[in-house]
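This section describes the prediction task in plain terms. A model, or a person checking by hand, is given the sequence of a single protein chain and must write out its three-dimensional structure as a string of C-alpha cells. No templates, partner chains or ligands are provided. The sample shown here is typical of the held-out split.
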Amino acid sequence: MEVDPSSVLSGFGTVEALEERLSRPTLQVVEAMGRLDGDIMILGVGGKMGPTLAMLAQRAVVETGRDRRVIGVSRFSDPQVAEKLNRAGVETIACDLMDEGTLEALPDVPNIIYVVGTKFGATGQEARTWAINAFLPGRVAQTFRRSRIGVFSSGNVYAFAPVIYGGSTEETPPAPIGEYAQSVLGRERIFEYFALQFNVRSVLLRLNYAVELRYGVLLDVARKVWAGDPVDVSMGHVNVLWQGDANAYALRALLLADVPPRILNVAGPETISVRSLALQFGELLGRSPIFEGRERREALLSNAQQAFKLLGYPSVPLGRVIEWVAAWVVDGGPVLDKPTKFQVRDGRF
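The expected answer:
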C-alpha cells in the first residue's frame, strides 16, 4: 500500500516539528539529567546530531527544575544553528577547537559530550582527518580531566562481521578498514591514554548508524527508490537507530562513565537487509526498486545488547521510522544532502 503523506507525517510537516520530536525527553532522560551534577557542555554541537542533542539536554534540564546550563560549542559555520540553539535556551560559544588556547578558555564544567569528528572527505585529507579525530581528543581529555566525558566514536572501528552472528560486540577486537576508521580507533586510543593518565571518567559510544528524516541510511535508500536510481546492495545489511534514541542514550550514558573508559555500542537491534528495506520503500512509494552490486556474507554490523541491558530498548521502532521517511520523501521534505556512503566497503569516504 502506498504512503499517504497526510496520514503518516503526523506533525512532521516542518523541520521544527521534526526537531521537537527528536529533542523530546523521555522520563528516563529527565531522571538521568536530575542525577548529573553541574552544567553540561557539548563540543562539536554544530554537526548533524549536535543541535537536537543539545536541545534534548536543555529540555530535560528544564523538566528537572534545577538551575543548570547546557552549553554548545562549535565553529557555527551556519549562524542559524547558533540562533536556533539560543532560542531553545542553549548557551553557545563560537570557536575552532583546534586553535591554540581555545580549550583552556572554555568553561570548566563537570559534564562533557564530545561530538567532534570528520568522516566525509577524509580521502585526500588524511592529515587533517587524523588531527581532528585523534590529536584533538587527547587535548580534550587533558583539559577536562576533572569532568565526566562521553565521547562519540563509530562502529567503523570493527571489521565486517558475518551477518548471521548479529554484529560485533564490545569485546570484538577492533580491525578498522581504511584511514577514516583507523583515525577513529586513534581517537579512542589517544583518549583512553589520557583518561587513564588523569583518571578521567568516560564512556566511548560506538554509534552505528543514527537516522532521522533529513539524512541517514533510510533516507539514502528511500531517495534512490523514489528517483528510480539503483540501490547498491554491496553492503547488504545495516543497523540503524532513530536519532532521538541515539541522543537519549548519549545523555544517559554519562552516568555509566568509568575508569578505564567504558565502551558501549549504540545501534539499532535489527540486522536489516538493504534489499528488503528497498522493497519496503518500493511498496510505500509506489516504485519498483532497481538493484546493483552483490550482497556479501559480512557487513559492518554492531551488536548493542549491552546498551539495551543497561539503558533499555529504543523507544521508536524501525517500522515507524521507515514510514516517516517515506512520507517525508513523498512530501518533498528538506534534506541535508549528506549521503552516508553506507555501501562503501573499502573504507574510502
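For orientation: The longest helix spans residues 178-198.
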